[in-house]
Structures are given as structure tokens and as C-alpha cells.
């Protein structure tokens, strides 16, 4: 399916092609009327659409050929053939080299985007991508009044691991946790590294009870996992703070704050725990604390 910019450029390209073809039909064959079609192919390159480049090139060659067959006679035969072949050659050169150039440019842009969206150490989503996804999914949940939850996950005693066994052990532990947690979540969820030893999970269409079950499954999976190689004796646990949407008015800032407080409560309760909270719970506790 075409995007809106593709559709826009497509309409312009087809419209120009029809205009050039109409002029070609009333122009004697001796005049190189096929050359303007090059600008239509160039328009496809400007649109950054490989599909439009190919489409415009085929259309341009087809109309140039039809113009040769239908236009009024005029000029020497060798001049007519030369003009048409030159036009078709120019169209194909622009289309082929433009297609190759744009393909490489789009691949490079995709690679750069992927690097920006991926955490280098663990290979999961980056903080930038996580926050953008959280904002988008929460906006969708608030608009359609759907349940929504998010997790903040922290590795217990991670500083001690770095201090006692070195940063290589810490990095190996983060990669292991990333793999275990990624295997525990659903396809609709977005999991990534929030920063340091903290991870964040975005769970659309998930209420607090479902979120708690998922969080417990992740916590248990990590506690039962082990590192490979020389760090195989190391064991790790995680604490999880879960924030669930309450009244479809929360911002991402609100939910992160709720999840952070729930995570703090989980660690204060001895770590290796899951605590679920909502903005309503926080408001109720604050109200009670004020009296």
C-alpha cells in the first residue's frame, strides 16, 4: 500500500506523463518529444520511492514507444529513431542508476536508524526507542480506553557483581537477562534497556492482574537462569515495579513515576520481588500520608 507522500508524487508523475504524451501526439516525429519523460523518472527519485522509480520508468518507456507509433510523421527516419532511442536510453539510465543509488541510501538510513533504536550491548531496544514507543502506545490506550501497563526492571546487587567480578561479568549478566526476558514476553510488547542495569517493558492491552502474572514469570525465569562459561556460578535476581493505567488520563511521565515507586518498594521489601501499582494507588497512599 502506498504512503501518502508516494500517492502524492504518483499523481504528479502520472499527470505529467499524460501531459507529455498529449504533446507528443501533436508533435512531428522528428522532434525529440520523449526526453521530457526523464523528468518524471527523476520525480520518482525525488520521492525516495523505489516503487515509483520503477513505475515511472516503465510508463515513460511505454509512452515514448506509443508516441513513436501514433505521432504525426515528420523528419528523417534516422533522426526519428535516434531521438526515440536516445530518449529511452536516457530514461533507463536515470532509472537504473537512480534505483541503485536510492537503494543504497535507504539501506544506509535503515542501518543508522536501527543502530539508534538498538542498545549496543544487549541488542534490545534503546532508551530513545523505548520512550517513543511508550508514548505512542500509551496515547493509543488512552484514546481507545484500553488497559495498559509498563514495567521498570532493576538487576539486584548489580554493583556488587561489577565490583567483585569485573565489568565483563556485568555485561554478560545484562545480555543474559535481556535474552531471558525477551523470551518471556509477547510479540506485542516492547522490551529494552532503560539505562545502566535498568530495563523497561511496554505492555499494551494489559491490565494490572495480567501484568503481575507476566512480571512474576519474568522474575522467576531470570532467577532460574545461569550464565555460561567462567561466570556459570553466578546467579542473579531482578526486582520489578509495574505501573498500570487507571483512568486513561496518565502521561508517560506519570506511569514511569508510578513504576519507579513500585520498583523502590520491591527492592525495599527484600529484592527479587514484583510490586504492582497504579496512579490511583499512589494518590490514595499520598492522601493517607497527608492525614
Structural account:
The chain is α+β, with helices and mostly antiparallel strands. The protein folds into two domains: 4-117; 127-289, Alpha-Beta Plaits (2-Layer Sandwich). The protein contains ten helices and five strands. A five-stranded mixed β-sheet has the order 2-3-1-4-5. Helix 6 (158-165) packs across helix 7. The longest helix is centred in the middle third of the chain and has 41 residues, at 77-117. It is elongated and about 95 Å long. The two termini are 59 Å apart. The mean pLDDT is 87.
Q: First CA to last CA: what distance?
A: 59 Å
Strand order in space, largest sheet: 2-3-1-4-5
By CATH reckoning, the class of the largest domain would read Alpha Beta
Number of domains: 2
Low-confidence stretches: none
* CATH architecture group name of the largest domain: 2-Layer Sandwich
Percent of residues in helices comes to 55-70%
Q: Output the number of helix runs.
A: 10
Task: Spell out the helices and strands N to C.
Answer: HHHHHEHHEEHEHEH
CATH topology of the largest domain: Alpha-Beta Plaits
The main sheet comes to:
5 strands, mixed
What amount of the residues lies in strands?
5-15%
What structural class is derived from the secondary structure elements? alpha+beta
The tally of strands reads: 5
Secondary-structure blueprint:
Elements: H1 4-25, H2 37-46, H3 50-70, H4 77-117, H5 127-144, E1 148-155, H6 158-165, H7 167-184, E2 190-195, E3 198-204, H8 208-224, E4 238-244, H9 252-268, E5 274-278, H10 279-289
Parallel strand pairs: 4-5
Antiparallel strand pairs: 1-3, 1-4, 2-3
Helix pairs in contact: 1-2, 1-3, 2-3, 2-4, 3-4, 6-7, 7-8
Amino acid at each position: 500500500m502506498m504512503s501518502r507522500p508516494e500517492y502524492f508524487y504518483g499523481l504528479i508523475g502520472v499527470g505529467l506523463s499524460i501531459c507529455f504524451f498529449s504533446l507528443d501526439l501533436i508533435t512531428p516525429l522528428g522532434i525529440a518529444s520523449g526526453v521530457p519523460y526523464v523528468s518524471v523518472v527523476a520525480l520518482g527519485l525525488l520521492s525516495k520511492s523505489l516503487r515509483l522509480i520503477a513505475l515511472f520508468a516503465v510508463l515513460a518507456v511505454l509512452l515514448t514507444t506509443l508516441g513513436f507509433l501514433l505521432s504525426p510523421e515528420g523528419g528523417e527516419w534516422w533522426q526519428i529513431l535516434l531521438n526515440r532511442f536516445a530518449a529511452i536510453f536516457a530514461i533507463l539510465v536515470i532509472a537504473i542508476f537512480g534505483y541503485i543509488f536510492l537503494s543504497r541510501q535507504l539501506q544506509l538510513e535503515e542501518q543508522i536508524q536501527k543502530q539508534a533504536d538498538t542498545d549496543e550491548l544487549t541488542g534490545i531496544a534503546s532508551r530513545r526507542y523505548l520512550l517513543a514507543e511508550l508514548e505512542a502506545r500509551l496515547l493509543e490506550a488512552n484514546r481507545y480506553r484500553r488497559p495498559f501497563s509498563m514495567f521498570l526492571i532493576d538487576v539486584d546487587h548489580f554493583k556488587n557483581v561489577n565490583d567483585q567480578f569485573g565489568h565483563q561479568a556485568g555485561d554478560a549478566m545484562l545480555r543474559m537477562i535481556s535474552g531471558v526476558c525477551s523470551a518471556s514476553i509477547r510479540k506485542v510488547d516492547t522490551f529494552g534497556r532503560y539505562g545502566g542495569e535498568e530495563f523497561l517493558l511496554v505492555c499494551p492491552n494489559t491490565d494490572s492482574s495480567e501484568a503481575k502474572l507476566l512480571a512474576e514469570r519474568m522474575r522467576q525465569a531470570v532467577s532460574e537462569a545461569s550464565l555460561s562459561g567462567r561466570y556459570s556460578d553466578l546467579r542473579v535476581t531482578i526486582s520489578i515495579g509495574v505501573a498500570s493505567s487507571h483512568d486513561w488520563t496518565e502521561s508517560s511521565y506519570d506511569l514511569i513515576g508510578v513504576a519507579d515507586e513500585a520498583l523502590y518498594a520491591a527492592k525495599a521489601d527484600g529484592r527479587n520481588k514484583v510490586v504492582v501499582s497504579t496512579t490511583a494507588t499512589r494518590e490514595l497512599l499520598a492522601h493517607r500520608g497527608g492525614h
